[in-house]
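Revision sheet: structure tokens.
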Amino acid sequence: MKIAPSVLTADFTNLKNEIDSISDADLIHIDIMDGNFVPNISFGPAITKQISKVSNKNLDVHLMVLDPLNWIDEFSLENVEYITVHFESNNFLEALTKIRKNGKKVGLTIKPETSVSLISKYLKDVDLVLIMSVKPGFGGQKFIPESLNKVKELVDLREKNNYKYVIEIDGGINGETAPLVKKAGVDIAVVGSYLFNKKERNKEMEKLR
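Predicted:
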């Protein structure tokens, strides 16, 4: 299982050192919030560019925005590997097409209240499926156990149909929940506040793996 630290809870007054402290990360997860799709606002393309300059890791951009089509070009930076949009956002199908056109891997995500069955017909066309195991918009929430059933469902659909997507989970990942999501079949675990509250973050990521 790969670990993708979310820098949402990093100390942005000391950003370079914060990025250096997670040098063993597999990806860096970028949570983008617009204050419309979710009530919170995080940061935008300018800060993401700064993160890309101080890290040699590929970026995993999660667009929690109402109109992702307006933002995909801005976040199609050189070292961005995945761009993920919400099924619940506006024009998500066109957004998926645009991500592919921009040469980035295509991600699709759903909120906790959205069932996997609603996105099943799109799974053949995506590279990553992100299961939100908390409500999007805020860090530090508790893991929603029902998310594990969604992961297992995605594993079954992938095997049954020979799909190629990886399964990512985001929200409430810590020392207790990481073994549960790994056992369920998660390929990439996003870790936020739990990791950035630790001093030796590279060692902690290895434990989580």
